[in-house]
Model the fold of this input.
Amino acid sequence: MKIDYDQSIDPPAPFISITIAHPLISTSEVQVAAKIDSGADITALPVNVVQQLNLQTNHFLEVAGYDNQIVSLPVYDVRLTVVHIRVRLKAIAISENHAILGRDVLNLLRLMLDGPTLTLEILE
Amino acid sequence: MPILKEVRAPYTINAKSDVVEHEAIIVRRDGESVVVVPIPADQIAETVLTTAEGEMIGALLPPGEYVAYRAWKETTATPSPPVPLDPEFEKQWQAFQRLKPELLKKYKGQWVAIVNEEVVEVGPDFATVAERTDRFGNVAKCIGEVLEKPRVYHLPSPKVIRRL
Done:
């Protein structure tokens, strides 16, 4: 499966659609675009998804940004579905409209980033 | 002294203009002059703090630092929880902290779940422990890794802000 990069941002970036579900309420789920970010140790969800699913904090994580400033952030327990993979994972919330797919999920997938054609290919 | 512009939104001035190089910049707030910040040409690249009666009210930043600041603001997740903390969760969190010395002796490097202020599950990773605690239903719980110092997760990608 090939997906075009999102060219509305500069430079264009690879995004993939993911589904986030409450861990215990299977009818409660949200689809959201997620930016592929191999630099991120952990997956992050838009704040509005956390609110929509009424996810409850179950821990705090120390998170460092590019400047190495560490902040303690609430962490949420979710079920995430991407392509054919469904995983249970912990995620933080960010003030963005899209999710960030970190290496905790990316390492389960085989992806090819084709920069020159601005396409992301999901390999079997 | 010429007035560059009266604005209620961010306004960009030309750092190479004569006004900036040879005159002072007067910062006004709500029509009231609050501070005069002289910026000699040789210091234009430095950050200048603006103060009124000893209180810092703002800062003039070189464009590069401003861009970096905006990028940091955009990418730094909000520290306040988007969903208010459940007081029941706070009890489990406090129990995790209280039990930590004992947990470190027994379960260092593993993940534990606390429900009703007691350890109810131990496992090698978050997912395993989370799945095992589902039997308690949708109750407040704390699931944490037992480490002496918390692990730091890195989310380093800054967003580039193109427009000032």
User: Anything to note?
Assistant: Residues 95 and 141 of chain B are 10 Å apart (CA to CA). Chain B has a mean pLDDT of 73. The beta strands of chain B are 24-29, 32-38, 48-52, 55-60, 111-115, 118-123, 142-145, 152-154.
